[in-house]
Amino acid sequence: QVQLVESGGGSVQAGGSLRLSCAASAYTYNNNWIGWFRQAPGKEREGVAAIWPRSRSAYYADSVKGRFTFSQDNAKNTIYLQMSGLKPEDTAMYYCAASPEGGWKLVPTSFNAWGQGTQVTVSS
Question: N or C: which terminus of the chain carries fewer CB neighbours within 10 A?
């Protein structure tokens, strides 16, 4: 069973930073795209970024490119999403997800396992 555990959300002022973590099992970590999605109230789930941990190939949505960056700890099977220059429009519930293929497209239907979500709130 695929398990993904997110942490690191919180509340910050505009311009601030947060780091989200997504811990996975070793198999999931080494055989899946690990992606981040977000969903604000009343809006559709939006793909934020995805990474293939073994190769470190990463893709970012245009809305976060240059502000969000992946890092990883292979010993802990954990992906980190460093979010800087946060804007009020980044406010959402953020979900970590796993995709065996095609995850770079940042389409929710490509992902077959999801974490419980962590809230990010950015105030102006």
Answer: N
pLDDT in tens, the chain (124 residues): 668 999 999 999 999 999 999 999 999 999 999 999 999 999 999 999 999 999 999 999 999 999 999 999 999 999 999 999 999 999 999 999 999 999 999 999 999 999 999 999 999 9
H helix intervals, the chain? 26-31
**Structure-block tokens of residue 18:** 């947060």
Q: What are phi and psi of 95, to 5 degrees?
A: -120, 135
Contact 120, 96 (CB under 8 A): no
77 and 29 Cβ atoms separated by less than 8 Å: yes
